[in-house]
Amino acid sequence: MNLQEYFNLNRFWLYLKHDLKLYKKKYLGFILSFILVLFLIDLFVIEQNLYIVKVENNYVRTFRTEIYQVVFLLTLLMSWVLVIGSSFLPLRKRSSTINYLLLPVSLLEKVLVQFIIRVVVFTCLFVFLYWIEFKLALSIIYLFEDKQSLIVPSFGVFDFFEKSLIFSHKIIIILSLFSVTSFLFAATTYFQKRPVLNTVLALGVLVLLAFVFSVVMSHVLLPDEVNGFEMKIFDRELPNKWNTIQICLSTIGVMSSLFFFPIAYFKLKEKEA
Hints:
By secondary structure, the chain is mainly α. It has two domains: about 1-165, no CATH class; about 165-273, no CATH class. The protein is about 65% helix and about 5% strand. It has helices at about 10-20, 25-50, 65-85, 95-100, 105-145, 165-190, 195-220, 245-255, 255-270; strands at about 50-55, 60-65, 150, 235-240, 240-245. Helix 6 (about 165-190) crosses helix 7 (about 195-220). The relative contact order is 0.11.
């Protein structure tokens, strides 16, 4: 087997530069729009989630760290749907699809270029932009607030994880998020028309099927303990702050990427044939 046929570093680098040059206006336009939207989201989240506490006989408004982390995760997931859902832009038109498939680049390199731009580069940008935009939104609020009456905890760039989480939990979360990106890649290669909308619908269907399956199995295994749409899940505490639910969800989250990325690759292979 000739590995150069599937991956060549020089060819990969040239194609990466070609993609960035070809879509630089679209990438730049999206980033500028994203910065504005992210600023408005952070401004709204801060303003809506300030609550009053008593500190040394004075009442001040503050902000929960958990809100910062939850909004970070939700915003990242929604951003991935848009960014990854718009991957492989030439595949949306028949004329550009032919030219795209005939490029002297392997399918693996085409997938890797999209992965690097839309997952690696975008996620790194998102982490820093989210933190910067949060600080900027906070500065705007400070202009209209008395600094003595507003106390917001200091958030570091990488404070998007709950501090109580152990290292293995963080790794599992990262791998599960990686599986989400693999699902989005598989969906965007499968749905040729309206990939973003169809991806959201497909994700919703999967969640609904998982819920229905859990309810049905709960009624089958524990008919006397559940009613209607209730579900009963066995949970056992394990060493190192783990439980059986976390083990199950982590296994599904991590292992699913082993199926979704090959689906994306072979779907492109099918189009090439």
